Amino acid sequence: MSGVLLSEMSWDLIFMLIALGAVVAVVGDQIGMRFGKKRISLFGLRPRYTSRVTTIVTGMLITLATLAVLGSTSETVRAALFGMKYLQGQVTDLTKQLQTSRQNLELMELSLFTNQQDLEKKQQELEDKQQEVASVEELLAREADHLARTQARLVETGERTQQLEKRRIELEDQLNSLRKEYTSLQQSVGALRAESKRLKEGLQQMREGHILAFSGELLAQTSLSGKVTPDQVDSALQRIRQLAEVLLQQRKKTPDPDVKVVVGEENLNSVRSRLNALSGRVVLRLTALANAVSGEPVACEIKIFPSKQLFQKGELLTRGIAPANLKEEDASDVLYGILKEINQKAIAKGVLPDPLLGTVGNLSTIDFYEAVDKIANKPQRLEVSVYAAEDVYSEGPVRVYVKIQGKNGK
Questions:
Q1: For 312-351, how does the pLDDT look when each residue is reduced to its tens digit (9 = 90+)?
Q2: Other Cβ atoms within 10 Å of 298 Cβ, number
Q3: Are the beta carbons of 331 and 370 closer than 8 angstroms?
Q4: What is the DSSP letter of 400?
């Protein structure tokens, strides 16, 4: 420590001050001695006092000279001499600032310590949260996998639901169709029952000789081809009335030549004018306007329909399959269904049906039961083909014959 201080001291300045002090002292001593020897008096003082004043002044000059030399040679000394109070103020301020800074430092250290504790606590909380997040992410991953499987099942379920919904709609459509068909069949059955009852009553009355014709019943029909003359028209009208009268006479138990068919003049004139204007094939149909009883004229009307050939002789009308080992009643039902199909096909093709029965032709009873015998109780499936027995026109009837052979062609 002492070595550092010795090395830091300004030895040049110290030696200069010592030398300067010695010179000033010698000079002052010489001056004092001279004043003393000469007994010089200054300002009316005694020489002894004058010598003392000279010594004092010399000491003051030494001090002033020392200060002058130090001030001229050292900036530090000048600052110490002329700015001491300023430096002391600065030192005081700096000391206060230092204390404030130390207090702030202590507060900052305390705050840092507190913040470090908070930081450690937050880090611990962060680690805990990270663990929780990791747990939640793992849980989310499992839930996402479960959700993906659930979505896949939902998609599959949705597809199955769509299929089931489509199937449900199809079944509903089929059910509605069946309901409509059932309603239609019920209506048809009701109408057929009513018609059957009416026909039975009419047949009973016919057998008893009371009713000759029913309202809307087809009594006769005839056809005309090409351009016809008025005489041919009148002949055709006369012929169709005669055919109707013959039919009605045959229905009575006893022949009655007085059975008359009456057609209104307005209807006859309309038919004549239309026939005179036509050039193709037409059919005339005479139908009863109302129920006619025995002993009364039968009021009728004549209608004109265009006629054309719809089926050729020998043309295949339909073909069906009869299962093996059918009972006789079942074979009858199969054949009846095939004939009914022909009836519907012929009507759709344009054959005019019977106004009362809705049929366009029939198979004779002998031919029907011969075909049933060929179908019933056979050990193999049979192919039932129905052909046109003659050319069929729009007015009908559709006469057919049945051909039955094994499914293999035998």
A1: 888 888 888 888 888 888 878 888 888 888 888 888 888 7
A2: 24
A3: no
A4: E
